[in-house]
Amino acid sequence: MALRNIREMGEDVLTKKSKEVREMNDRTRALIDDMLETMYESGGVGLAAPQVGVLKRIVVIDVSDTGDEPVVLINPQILETSGEQTGWEGCLSVPGKSGKVTRPLYVRASALNRDMEPFEIEGTELMARAICHELDHLDGKLYVDLVEGDLVDNSELEKEAEEGSEQENGDGDNREEKAESAT
Ligand SMILES: [Zn+2]
User: Fold this and answer.
1) How many angstroms separate the alpha carbon of residue 8 from the centre of ligand 1?
2) What is the pTM (predicted TM-score) of this model?
3) What is the per-residue pLDDT for 159?
């Protein structure tokens, strides 16, 4: 396994549509391993192949606190969404920034696993957000185009969170206010 270079906003590869994976081979297996390693090393909860410069429809996600629940989605497709959530979102390709994005609260998707076997995955909250964010990457879309208001520096956000902590009344939304969903 090896770390891959994460491409940043402004690079062409992030605006292109990725191609379906037709067959599994050693090269693609190595890519998936490298994507996982790169995601964990960067502290992200998801990474799409175009973010490491490869235009293949492959996404890795791990929204667990422990970082030991990797999900590999090959040729993923969203089957169903419902509800709505608005919260802070970040992207490893847009380092140091966050923005508020509205996404479905629930997502169900189909994909192939690393053995090219079909499966379905569903998730709410951060998992639903991560699936939507990563699948957008496969179509050359970045979350910055969906941001409501301005992109803000993460350092500003942390400051605000400290200052605003007295106003937080535990209404359940605060967890999402943390801009740690860099994907
Ligand atoms: Zn991203």
Assistant:
1) 9
2) 0.89
3) 84
